[in-house]
Structures are given as structure tokens and as C-alpha cells.
TrEMBL record:
It comes from the Bacteria. This is Pilus assembly protein CpaD. The keyword Protein transport does not apply. The keyword Signal applies. Keywords: Signal. It holds the Pfam family Pilus_CpaD.
Amino acid sequence: MTRHIRSLKTLIALGAGAAAITACASVAPTAVPAAYLETSPLDLNPIKVEKRTEFLEVSIDAYAGELSSSDRARIQDFMRGYVRRGHGPLVLSMPQVSSNPQLAVAAVAEARAIAWDMGVEYQEISGTAHGSGSSVSEPMILAYQSYEAIAPNCPPKSTVDFSNIDSNNQMETLGCSVRTNLAAMIIDPADLLGNRPLDRSDLARREVILEKFRAGESTASERSSQESGAVSSAVQ
């Protein structure tokens, strides 16, 4: 039997090589960033919400006895915006310096009446004055706070390398178009901040549904023949 004796240097070199191979096998190369494990795809392209102030200035005509029809229409449109997306008080500011003080007072009163007709309560209106010491006639000013949804900046699809399969991670553009569409469609961006209080739940109705569920009955509301979703025989 022949015995092969290797030198100490050779054995050390072989051992170092085996250790390096083992290290490579235990720590495989990866393209997973740390943020991938700490966030969700929804965090990649968030919708930002910014607070802004909506203004409307209504000039006071020095020779008019009442507001024009176009000014009334502008005020009505402004009030619709407040009802739909306004937050905080509706500010009606009367000019302290005006070329027609009587009309300035009447304009504020008419704006308040228009707001009331559109469902704005008087306690939601904040009256104030402005323009003290002004050298020119000031307009009537209406204002309220609102929120604006800022869509994420989606990169062009032409700049995205969809053939890159270095990892199985989601791309940075995942959900960006969806978030952009949502930012354009949402009625009141303040809802993204959770500022709107929820209505109280109907406890009696919840008990009825729970009892039907326990009894194995349908929890859907019953419909009459007039409310049926069946297709009419006239079109069959």
C-alpha cells in the first residue's frame, strides 16, 4: 500500500479553499434591499396630502345696488366646493374700506344666505373684516381650508427594464399608476389623513343580522317584486 504524504502548506491551502466555498454557499448573492423587508408595495408610491386655502374675491361696484348674477353664480360655485371638500369654518370677510359700503354689507348678507340655502349652518360661518386703512376700495373675500392629493411621480414605462430578473422583488413602479388614478378620483383628500369622524353604528340592526346568522338564515335584505333585480319579461 502506498501512502501519499502532503506538505503542511498544501493542507492549509486546501482547507482555506474549502472554507471559502462553504462561506459562499451559506451567504448566497441577493438583490433584496433592506427596505423590501421593512415596507409594503403601498409604501413605494404614496399619495401626499397638502393643505391649501381656497379664496374668492367679489368686487363691490361703486354704482350698483346689488350683486350681479355672475357674482351670485361665482359665490354659489364657491359654496359647492366648501360643502364638498371644505374643512373648518367658512370665512366671510367684509371690507372696511369700500366705495359702496351699503352694497358691501348686503353682499356679505347675501353670501351668508346662499351658504344657508346650500346646507351650511350659521355656526360654520366665521365673519370678519379686512382692509382697515386701505387707500382703495376692497372686495368681499370668502375663504376656507381644503386638502389636495399629490400623486406620485411615475417614471415613464420606457425607462423601466422589465427584462431584469436579478431578483423576484417588485419593481419600484409597482402600484404607481393605480395611486395616480386614485389621487385624481378621490373626492376629499382629507380622508387619507383619517380626519373625518365615522357615523355611529346601528346597534339594533347589527343584532338583527347577528340573530339571523346564528339561525342560519339569509342576512340579506328582502326585496319586493318591484325591487327585484330580475330582467323584465318585456325584454326577454
